[in-house]
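FAQ
Q: What does a multi-component entry look like?
A: The components come first, one per line:
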Amino acid sequence: MLRSLQSFRYLKKNTIIHNLDPRSKMLFVILLSFLIFISNNIITLSLIMFLVIITAYAAKSISQLLKMLKGILPWIIFIFVVNYFTSEKGILIATIMSLKFTALATVFTLFFITTSPEDFMLALNKLGLPYEYTLAFTMAMRFVPSLARDLQIIIDAQKSRGLELEKGNFIERIRRYIPILVPLIVYEIRRSFMIAEALESRAFGSTKRTFYYELKITKNDILFIIFSCIIAMVLYLIEVFFKLF
Amino acid sequence: MPKAVEVRSLYFKYEDSDKYALEDINLEIKSGEKVAIVGENGAGKTTLIKHFNGLLKPTKGYVKIFGVDTKQTTVASLARKVGLVFQNPDHQFFAESVEKEIEFALRNFGFSDTEIKDIIDKMLKFFGLEKYRKSSPFTLSGGEKKRLAIASALCYNPDIVVLDEPTVGQDIIQKRKLSLLLEKISEMNKTIVVVTHDIDFVAENFKRVIVMAQGRVIADGEVNEILTNKDILRKARLLPPQVTLCAWYLSDLGISEKIIKLDELLEEILDLIKGARLC
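Then the predicted structure of the entire assembly, as tokens:
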């Protein structure tokens, strides 16, 4: 479970895509998701997938994307099967629906693995979201690894007291997770209070905040934005063109 | 005496790392022995003791508990013999009351109802937790939590008791109580392994100490020899016990440099004063 989360994690790399301003990447993601939502034919969706793969290649993140796809494969199959049996056109709709899901997942994953949580937060801030909210978001991301570590310690501690997670039938097994979940939840709630106190003792929220890093729109960003808009327009035209027939 | 723990050329590497966390560890702990493991943060102490009940399995080499290879058996069956108490009690409490917390391990190991009632009574009395029998473990103070954590491992009477950092966050009175407790457990002829940073605690309570640094055992032997050896202490980045430090300052006056206990130091100083008076 924890390993599949790894494929969504930001990895620091020095590529054009990684160095782009998060806002230009957001525009790219929004345009593509809009297209994915309205699109209803295989050709546009395939083109979008192709575009995303090229971007992923430029970001040197193909292997990470593949890992993510492997993680969501059961969902893709589930969507395919459900649509296959419930819709009239069967196989065509099923393919379109699973392609849509795959494309959306890939676009968003690509954004998150190429954008550091700090940059993302700054960008949201610039777009007008209050700092309290963006901080909550980045902290949530930041605490996933420490949550995983706490979970491991708790599992070890309870195993040392003779807890056997693998024993028994389904219901029994779920019951066996109580000694793991209770300490985890209590511990994390207590820690969240401690973090709140630590933040407040460092004058969180006292005055308007200034930032050490500022986001900058570079020449690459402008090129990327223009490129995204043109591509989106072309894809939209293709989509409309196919709707006519 | 039979060997309680036997570790031979143990190498261990965490899955996501390419560096060995433990390298070429060799040690034997006899049944009934009381041993301290010391070393700076990240020296591999906790990693080593997690091998004693099979939570971690060696990458190379072997660990045997009473002659049984940990690779050949389950954590649950090893835990029955090795009671491991983790550093932070908050990582294990989940039950609605103190007595249920102790009951947990007993149920896991299949004790009968009458036995359980008996043991809980005995444990609560022994650890001075009787008045908290029905209270939630989360409402206890730091020291009480620690004692409850130790009680919840001692209750099923394991042959080997392993404590990870039992003195952290304990005031001086709790530490003394812990010393007494260790003595009592030792009198029951149990094997005790304590991992700690607290050199003074080791000096006062242990005969044998194992020093670890960077995943290796760099010294293993008598406390008097090891905790007064400047070379070993420097390598392990440890400070000698306060008493030893004091003895070193006084060494010009003829006080032995191998002193680690307060009584020993006092005795030498008193002898010195008496000698001076006679002259």
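Q: Is there any commentary attached?
A: Sometimes. For this entry: Chain B has a mean pLDDT of 91.
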